[in-house]
Design a protein that fits this description.
Layout lengths: L3 H56 L7 H14 L2 E6 L4 E5 L4 E2 L1 H4 L6 H10 L2 E5 L9 E13 L6 E14 H4 L1 H47 L16 H49 L8 H29 L8 E4 H11 L1 H6 L3 E5 L6 E4 L1 H17 L6 E9 L2 E9 L5 H4 L23 H11 L4 E6 L2 E9 L2
Parallel strand pairs: 8-10
Antiparallel strand pairs: 1-2, 1-6, 2-3, 4-5, 5-6, 7-9, 10-11, 11-13, 12-13
Length: 485
């Protein structure tokens, strides 16, 4: 498995290297061109100055063999750090000096520049380029040349003519041209190495800081998967970035799973208890009848108890099957229109015997017109049955039970109310849990298995509807909503 830290570091380092490579290439090209251009412009200016100076010296009668002229040429060569060369118009060399030694016409007589150089001066009016000047230099140099003109006046016409009498050249070594550029390159490389080291170090620390929390969360997840439900990701509570959000989300998920596991364990314990009690009773009375412990005159009562406990087991299994069906991923709530008032009245009529047995009055506040809603009529019928059955069982004998349906805000609000013992506030939050039965307020429920309200909650959740419960001053009220059609 490739490490995220390595991938992050390599990606960041690669981006930095590519960026520096592109920046370096651009910098090298621009700096080199700038250096060459600056040197070329300087040499061309010097060549222009030499040409003008030579032209004026000729006018004043100062020859190229004159000591003053040669001294001036040597001085310019030293200042330019280049070789100064004066030639005739046809390319014959006249004066050459590097600022230290001077070669005059006597030493240079018979030495000519290449015809290509002379032709370029005549055609272009200037020469620039890299050349050994026909082997005059041992290696190629950057050469700039400017023609030397002499002005003459025609006595007959009075017209001033420009005659090229020679060419002034300035030749600089390539090494001197690139010296500044090399200095730039040295500074750039030094700076680049320092910046790259800092960038790599920063990238390494940043990548490690990003991957370390992920490793800790992964390790915590592995522990959690092995059954250590109390482990949590700590140390990132103050982080406001994505890592902090991930740690918070993981801890929230862990809390939810831990609660679900706790409820699962409680569920298994409760269902074991619910199954064990009637089965123990059935086995005890059956054995008593078989081995003669129960006398014949009491066998009928024992059989009635066995029958009652058997029906209780049947109800429990049926409720468990209903619950399994409701929680199945394949369960899709059918959506159709129906009158919720009609459903409530139909359930109320089916429970008339139980209502009369407890001598209850029923206060119904139902609209005259049908209240059409969307949902699964069979499932909502079960909701109404469970709520009304609970209200009957836990109402004080001779009290009034209330039913009301109102429509507002696009919802039908259905309320079932009974008068009896108040449910303690600390139990209201658990009233819809599986197998929850309050010992204080629900102790009279001898036949229930603690799944009715949980099934109600599940059905309404499948319909994406809400149910609430309040219990105070002896009045307990369940209220749920349905979407109006």
């Amino acid at each position: 498995m490739k490490s995220l830290y390595k991938r992050q570091f390599i990606l960041t380092a690669g981006m930095i290297l590519v960026s520096f490579a592109l920046l370096g290439a651009a910098f090298f090209t621009l700096s080199y061109q700038y250096t060459i251009r600056q040197t070329r412009d300087s040499m061309e200016r010097n060549a222009d100055y030499l040409a003008n100076f030579t032209s004026k010296a000729k006018v004043l009668g100062v020859g190229v063999e004159d000591e003053v002229y040669l001294t001036m040429m040597a001085t310019i060569a030293q200042i330019s750090d280049a070789v100064v060369l004066i030639t005739e118009a046809d390319g014959e060399m006249v004066v050459s000096t590097d600022g230290i030694t001077i070669q005059s016409y006597t030493q240079l007589s018979g030495h000519y520049l290449p015809s290509s150089v002379v032709d370029q001066v005549r055609q272009m009016g200037r020469y620039t380029g890299m050349s050994t000047l026909g082997g005059f230099f041992a290696e190629k140099r950057y050469v700039a040349g400017t023609p030397i003109f002499m002005s003459t006046r025609d006595l007959n016409t009075g017209k001033v003519n420009q005659t090229m009498i020679g060419v002034a050249y300035v030749a600089a070594e390539v090494s001197s041209l690139t010296e500044l550029w090399r200095a730039f390159i040295t500074i750039f490389f030094f700076t680049a190495v320092v910046v790259l080291c800092i960038a790599f170090l920063t990238s390494s620390v940043t990548s490690l800081k990003q991957t370390k929390p992920l490793q800790e969360i992964a390790e915590t997840a592995r522990k959690f998967g092995h059954g250590e439900y109390d482990v949590r990701v700590t140390g990132y509570e103050d982080r406001k970035d994505e890592v902090g959000e991930l740690a918070e989300a993981f801890n929230a998920m862990a809390d939810s799973i831990a609660k679900s596991e706790e409820r699962r364990s409680e569920f298994v314990a409760n269902i074991s208890h619910e199954l064990k009690t009637p089965m123990t009773t059935i086995a005890g009375f059956s054995d008593g009848i078989l081995d003669g412990t129960i006398p014949p005159e009491r066998e009928r009562a024992a059989l009635q108890t066995i029958s009652s406990e058997t029906r209780r087991l049947s109800r429990l299994v049926r409720r468990m099957l209903d619950l399994s069906r409701l929680q199945s991923a394949e369960n899709v709530t059918a959506q159709e229109q129906f009158d919720v008032s009609e459903v409530m009245l139909r359930v109320l009529v089916s429970l008339e015997t139980k209502i009369n047995a407890r001598q209850l009055d029923v206060d119904t506040q139902l609209p005259d017109d049908p209240v059409m809603v969307w949902g699964d009529p069979d499932a909502i019928t079960q909701v109404c049955y469970n709520l009304l059955d609970n209200a009957i069982k836990f109402s004080d004998p001779g009290s009034t039970m209330g039913i009301s349906i109102t429509a507002k805000g696009g919802k039908a609000h259905v309320t079932v109310r009974n008068t009896g013992q108040t449910i303690p506030p600390d139990e209201l939050a658990m009233i819809f849990d599986r197998f929850h039965k309050s010992d204080k307020s629900r102790s009279v429920d001898r036949e229930g298995v603690g799944l009715g309200l949980y099934i109600v909650k599940t059905i309404l959740n499948n319909h994406k509807e809400n149910i609430t419960v309040t219990s105070q001053d002896g009045v307990t009220e369940f209220a749920f909503t349905l979407t109006l059609a």
